[in-house]
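testing teh design pipeline on a random one, pls ignore if ur not involved
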């Protein structure tokens, strides 16, 4: 059984808890006792936490294989809940604590494909770090993905936050288009955003039934919980131009709003936003979750 100890930080009314052994996931992020991310249920399931890292790729890989630099790579299924490899390596591994202060953490993990069956999860060696820094107004996140391999490596980064679906939760974000998905939730075709999926103005989430990749996102999104009179802004730094929005039924109790660097299915289809890291090169991405009072 995993030992799932949490690390706890606090600053200016914010509480942050992280579990390095459980995919380095955020298990609680709250403001004065109000949960801004879905609180962890205590299970060994990282997908029941508040937020985890997507690295070295986001979302699914079609047919579990991709061609890169003249070679074909086959990846194994990494989740019992999904037929295709999904969300990379980081969420399935224990992270190491490198540094801890009163209001910040630095975590890391190293992937060596030569060890055991690691190559079936990802064929390139890398080192990944995440810095979590509480601010007076919220939380700052930074990812650094370093290619330790002797070969170029395709790469993507992102975060998978789950926001609690408190009564009347509202959402706002602007994008240029959306990918429709097939029965495997892989991108099928890009289209203009239908009115029922248009959140360019702040409005109630309701039941749009989304599990889709929005493209041409401007890096800004906002959630508002009217009853609590609180608003949370997602501010993504450069290179996170895609937004995946997942809105299962309200009974699930959450929505996911995921800033990512590349389009869904990019690895299998030479897709938009995928980076290529030379040996020794590092990919860096930033995101902030900022909280403010919200008007009625």
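output:
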């Amino acid at each position: 059984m995993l030992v799932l100890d949490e690390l706890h930080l606090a600053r200016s009314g914010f509480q942050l808890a992280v579990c390095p052994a459980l995919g380095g996931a955020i298990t609680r992020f709250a403001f004065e006792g109000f949960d801004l991310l879905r609180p962890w249920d205590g299970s060994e399931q990282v997908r029941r936490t508040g937020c985890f890292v997507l690295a070295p790729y986001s979302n699914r890989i079609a047919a579990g294989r991709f061609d890169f630099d003249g070679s074909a790579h086959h990846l194994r299924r990494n989740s019992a809940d999904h037929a295709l490899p999904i969300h990379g390596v980081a969420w399935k591994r224990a992270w190491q604590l490198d540094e801890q202060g009163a209001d910040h953490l630095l975590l890391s993990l190293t992937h060596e494909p030569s060890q055991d069956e690691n190559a079936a999860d990802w064929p390139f060696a890398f080192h990944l770090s995440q810095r979590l820094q509480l601010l007076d107004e919220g939380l700052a996140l930074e990812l650094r993905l370093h290619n330790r391999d002797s070969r170029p490596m395709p790469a993507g980064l992102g975060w998978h936050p789950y926001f609690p679906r408190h009564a009347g939760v509202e959402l706002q974000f602007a994008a240029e288009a959306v990918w429709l998905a097939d029965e495997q939730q892989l991108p099928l075709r890009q289209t203009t955003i239908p009115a029922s999926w248009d959140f360019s103005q702040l409005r109630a989430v309701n039941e749009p039934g989304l599990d889709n990749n929005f493209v041409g996102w401007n890096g800004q999104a906002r959630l508002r919980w009217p009853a609590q009179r609180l608003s949370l802004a997602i501010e993504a730094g450069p290179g996170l131009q895609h937004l995946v929005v997942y809105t299962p039924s309200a009974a699930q109790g959450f929505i996911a709003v995921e800033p990512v660097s590349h389009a869904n299915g990019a690895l299998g289809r030479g897709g938009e936003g995928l980076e290529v890291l030379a040996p020794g090169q590092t990919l860096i991405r930033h995101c902030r979750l900022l909280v403010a009072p919200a008007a009625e």
